[in-house]
Amino acid sequence: MGPTPYTFPLVLLVLTTQLSIAIYMRSHHPFSLPFILTAYVFGGTLNQNTFLAIHEITHNLAFKSLRANKVLAIVSNLAIGIPYAMAFKGYHREHHKYLGEEGIDTDLPSRFEALVLNNVAGKTFFAYVPLSSSLQIMGADV
Prior knowledge:
- By secondary structure, the protein is mainly α.
- The protein has seven helices and no strands.
């Protein structure tokens, strides 16, 4: 397959949209209904797109050049509050290398996650709060 020419312009479009919405919404109170709905619908969708773009970029599917892929991963990470794009690549490589091996595969839940997230409330929290994934990537045992 190889690199796709659509990744770079889509990353720029999503980043520009996120920054534009942030500038537009700065006059709204963070607990106002328009702010919350915008954050939920647009923020959640655009952030998920960014996470998926970083995933594809770490597989070097945006450009042929490794350096260009790294730069794009950093740029695409700008709108996310936690800088994780560079750390993600190492963890994701381990995930592919040790797929399904407990204690090594970084995509398997930790014992704490398996205990706490083993019900509807826990799964709902995990689905709507990506913080636990970001903390896991940064090395915290959550």
